[in-house]
């Protein structure tokens, strides 16, 4: 009986030495969406990830993951998304894998078990001796009408795990790695100013002499980032001469210009010749984002103090630019 006791003690001691704590909570790597235009934030899902969500494990060939084990992550925050300089919020979803289906959606404040759906196994966290971290994936929720600026959120991630960290020759679990800890993850995005512009072509039609051309009255509709102050310029075109825009047909020119509102001030591209967002005829002020376009009236006329050029089709290209 004494001999049996000694032998049993030696065997258990040898097997127990294989059991070790393999996982730990570590500092995360920030998840950055990078610079994104306000229009894309509103209309298109933006994706990013972090390679390190705060849990690092050194695998072991003696580790075993069973249905009784778990790797819980509970993610919380004091805000509902990334918050910008004016208080606007950009919401986003968190996922456990880049296969961002419903099965992998991490709901804030609810435990998500990374041991399920084969995630831990696919990551190889328990299958080798190289330390590996758990990634997290993020995708923005479209529809946010936000101002430009830097948006950030700090997430609190509580990791709680328990699994068989050592098995014997007969598949018996010899010990468990059970622990927990909290880390934080910073999520950020830089929203940049952007605009959508509707600017129809100008057509003067046809006339036998310059004095017979009529005035063209039209509008330019611009929808820029919420809260942005901007100016709109029209360049001199491709054939300007002596302070006038000109259309060209072969070697011949037809002078014309584009004037602000219904007046006689030329709409240009520099200094006071530009139009400020506050001067819009409809919705003057700062940009409104998706809440409405700002409308700028203009009139275009052929100069009647020029000699009528030969018949032909006369064209020019004018560049519209928006400056913030």
Automatic annotation (TrEMBL):
Signal peptide: 1-21
Domain of life: Bacteria
UniProt cross-references to SMART domains, sorted A to Z: SCPU
Record keywords: Signal
Record flagged with keyword Transcription regulation: no
Transcription regulation among keywords: no
Chain ranges of the Spore coat protein U/FanG domain: 16-156, 182-319
Any matching Pfam family: SCPU
PANTHER family listed in its UniProt record: MEMBRANE PROTEIN, PROTEIN U-RELATED
Protein name: Spore coat U domain-containing protein
Organism field: Pseudomonas aylmerensis
């Amino acid at each position: 009986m004494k001999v049996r006791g000694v032998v049993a003690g030696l065997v258990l001691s040898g097997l127990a030495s294989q059991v070790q704590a393999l996982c730990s909570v570590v500092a995360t790597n920030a998840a950055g969406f990078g610079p994104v235009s306000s229009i894309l934030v509103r209309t298109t899902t933006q994706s990013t990830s972090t390679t390190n969500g705060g849990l690092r494990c050194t695998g072991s060939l003696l580790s075993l993951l069973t249905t009784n084990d778990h790797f819980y992550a509970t993610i919380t925050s004091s805000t509902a998304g990334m918050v910008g300089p004016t208080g606007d919020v950009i919401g986003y979803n968190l996922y456990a894998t880049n296969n961002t289906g419903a099965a992998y959606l991490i709901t804030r404040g609810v435990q998500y078990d990374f041991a399920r759906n084969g995630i831990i196994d696919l990551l190889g966290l328990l299958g080798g001796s190289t330390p590996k971290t758990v990634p997290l994936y993020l995708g923005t929720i479209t529809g946010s009408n936000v101002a430009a600026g830097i948006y950030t959120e700090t997430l609190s991630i509580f990791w709680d795990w328990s699994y068989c960290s050592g098995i014997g020759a007969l598949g018996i679990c010899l010990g468990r790695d059970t622990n927990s800890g909290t880390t934080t993850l910073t999520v950020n995005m830089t929203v940049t100013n952007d605009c959508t512009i509707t600017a129809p072509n100008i057509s003067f039609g046809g006339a036998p002499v310059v004095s017979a051309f009529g005035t063209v009255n039209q509008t330019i509709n611009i929808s820029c980032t919420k809260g942005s102050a901007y100016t709109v310029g029209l360049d001199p075109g491709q054939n300007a001469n002596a302070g006038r825009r000109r259309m060209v047909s072969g070697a011949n020119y037809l002078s014309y210009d584009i004037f602000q509102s219904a007046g006689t001030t030329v709409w240009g591209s520099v200094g006071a010749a530009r139009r400020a967002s506050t001067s819009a005829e409809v919705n003057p002020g700062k940009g409104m984002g998706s809440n409405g376009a700002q409308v700028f009236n203009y009139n275009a006329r052929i100069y009647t103090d020029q000699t009528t050029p030969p018949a032909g089709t006369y064209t020019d290209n004018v560049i519209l630019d928006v400056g913030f």
